[in-house]
Amino acid sequence: MKESDQSIVAFDAHEQEHANLEKLLATWGAMVAEKKANRNDVSVLLAGLIETLQSHFDHEEHEQGFFKTVVKQAPWLSEQAQTLMDEHCGMCQMLERVHSHAQEDSPHDAWWTKHTDEFQQFRRSFLRHERSENDLLQQAFTQDIGSND
Ligand SMILES: [Fe+2]
Ligand SMILES: [Fe+2]
Question: Distance from the CA of 114 to the center of ligand 2, in angstroms?
Fold first, then answer.
């Protein structure tokens, strides 16, 4: 398999992981919108999301992963790539905090108010991060197409 074909396969898998994470986020969002879900179900969903997120970040940071492939293609984007990689740890910690707070025993309304705030905060950070990665990929390949003209 040519190196460029391997990159396409890797980017397909990367896109699929983004789609899976967004699906989990949408399920969580539906629970938050209804405010009826069993707290234990929310907690189980969050545990799954943490695991999926961590594994996604590990794949991105891998030697043959998303960032290394992008930077190999477009070395001038290495600083932006590093900034995005540096966000991973903070996002995992944020989600672990939400998970831990979700297990606290507090009155229904107070619990959902806090949980909704935390959901929105995480969702904003996460979507911004993933959008920046998609932009990074596009920049790497747009520049490349331009340079081959
Ligand atoms: Fe990432
Ligand atoms: Fe990502």
Answer: 26
As for how many domains the chain has, the answer is 1
Main-chain phi, psi angles of 84, to 5 degrees: -70, -40
Helix (H, G, I), strand (E, B) or coil at 75: helix
Which residue segment(s) compose the domain that 45 sits in? 3-147
Nearby residues for ligand 1 (ion, Cβ within 5 Å): 60
Helices (H), 1-149: 3-34, 39-61, 66-73, 78-102, 108-147
- CA–CA separation, 70 vs 63, rounded Å? 11
Q: Is the pLDDT of residue 96 over 90?
A: yes
pTM, full prediction: 0.89
Tell the residue number behind the tokens 């707290």, with chain if given. 39
How close is the Cα of 56 to the center of ligand 2, in Å?
A: 7
